[in-house]
Amino acid sequence: MAFRGEPLDADMARLAAQCVLDWIAVTIAGASEPCADILAGEFATQNPGDSPLVGRNGFARPMDAVLINGTASHALDYDDVNSIMPGHPTVPLLPAVLGLGVELGKSGAEVVQAFVAGYEAQCQIGHFLNPSHYANGFHSTGTIGTLGAAVGAGTLLGLDALQMANAIGLAAAQAAGLKSMFGTMAKPFQAGKAAVNGLLAARLAARGFTASTEAIEASQGLVDTLSDEVLPPAVDFGIFGKAIARTLFKYHAACYITHSAIEATRVFVENHPAEVPGIISGEIHVGPNALKICNIQTPRTGLETKFSLRHVVSMVLAGKDTTSFETFSDENAHDASIIAFRDRVQVIPDLPDGTAARMKFHLMGGEVVEIAEDVGVPATDLAAQEAKLSR
Predict the structure, then answer these.
(1) pLDDT attached to residue 233
(2) Which domain holds residue 6?
(3) Quick check: 42 and 220 in contact, CB under 8 A?
(4) 95: closest CA among 127, 42, 141?
(5) CA atoms of 333 and 302, how far apart (whole Å)
(6) CATH of the domain at 152
(7) pLDDT at residue 4 is higher than 60
(8) How far apart are CA 96 and CA 15, in angstroms?
(9) Contact assessment for residue 121 and residue 148, using Cβ atoms and an 8 Å cutoff
């Protein structure tokens, strides 16, 4: 595996390349968002350096560039996800390993190897901490992503086992992220902080900085304090080496838990276009956890609309293109045609937790149309997925 420097198999390497491609695209797009502008104004203007800012005509000091690029890449909430973590694995990780790789003059293959190591590590750690960690309100991208960034950066730095354990401990000491920040600039900022804090942890460990080497499993450690889970005496590392195959890419610029409802609504609109104006009411059936993730009832901003099941479904009914990040604007948060549909839609949390959704539309004349979708199944045709990402 990537920890031991062994070559990646072809599918892992291809998936990693797709993660990189997706990250570059969402970072370029997110670089002009207000949160990225503010960070660039704070760091790149006052402390110019020689590390490139992706999607911007500017540079910053290496650590500042990681923070800015990491935040920009999550600004649109259009980046990949993994349900094992659960969260966004690439945005806290790739800015750290890519920035460090450029600084150290590492090859692309070495950067990809380190990326996969960090990716697998953060999903394995996520498996230990969840489901309670995420359910209790922690934003795994910020918390667990910090440890993933440390492992990825530590791999590039060639840390030995003790140094890597210290890096993970230092990352755990900085791990932070709250789901209450969803729909604000602080959500992508948590991804940027995870990237730079994880990189700092690895750098310090390389210089001899110490921490608890049992930060994950110790009493009052990560699992003990940030989750309700209990590690068994013989810990199962069976997730490691298999997680990247569970990568899910986004094709709508909103929270991933809204995507199944979006797809089901699109099917309804395509098959029943004449019935859309006469919808009496609609039901979005999802798992209970969706209520804590993407159930903002009356979003006030474009950012908040990304985390409102009722609003995104109503956007589709109103003919808006949810594949375009420009659709998720402050203007559309207050669009009367969207709100008119939203007022007729309710969320019903009666499905098992996961990514599935079932839409039920009550039409004039008494007809009821039900459509179920689940976008949580990873692609098996990697060539087709690559073509879709490259459009």
Answers:
(1) 72
(2) 2-246
(3) no
(4) 141
(5) 6
(6) 1.10.4100.10
(7) no
(8) 18
(9) yes
Bond preceding residue 233 cis, omega within 30 of 0: no
Total length of the chain = 391
Last residue of a domain, one of 246, 278, 298: 246
Instruction: Output the average pLDDT for the chain.
Output: 94
Q: CA-to-CA distance for 117 and 244, rounded, in angstroms?
A: 10
Q: Give the up-direction half-sphere exposure of residue 128: CA atoms within 13 A in the CB hemisphere.
A: 25
Question: Residue 349, exposed/middle/buried by CB under 10 A (0-12, 13-18, 19+)?
Answer: middle
| pLDDT-based confidence at residue 232 (cuts at 50, 70, 90) | confident
**Considering only CA atoms, which of 312, 324, 320 is closest in space to residue 357?**
312
Mean pLDDT of 263-291: 95
pLDDT for 5 = 54
Contact 357, 380 (CB under 8 A): no
Instruction: Return all residues near 245 (Cβ < 8 A) that are at least 6 apart.
Output: 11, 12, 15, 378
CB atoms within 10 A of CB 109: 11
Judge contact between 177 and 85, C-beta under 8 A.
Answer: no
Average pLDDT over residues 259-287: 96
Q: How far is 308 from 127, CA to CA, in rounded Å?
A: 27
Domain CATH number, residue 275: 3.30.1330.120
Residues whose CB falls within 8 Å of the CB of residue 345, separated by 6 or more in sequence, listed in order: 281, 282, 283, 284, 310, 313, 314
Read off the pLDDT of residues 30-81 as tens digits, 9 standing for 90 and up: 999 999 999 999 997 777 788 999 999 889 999 999 999 999 999 999 999 9
190, part of any domain:
yes
Residue 63 backbone dihedrals phi, psi, to 5 degrees: -70, -35
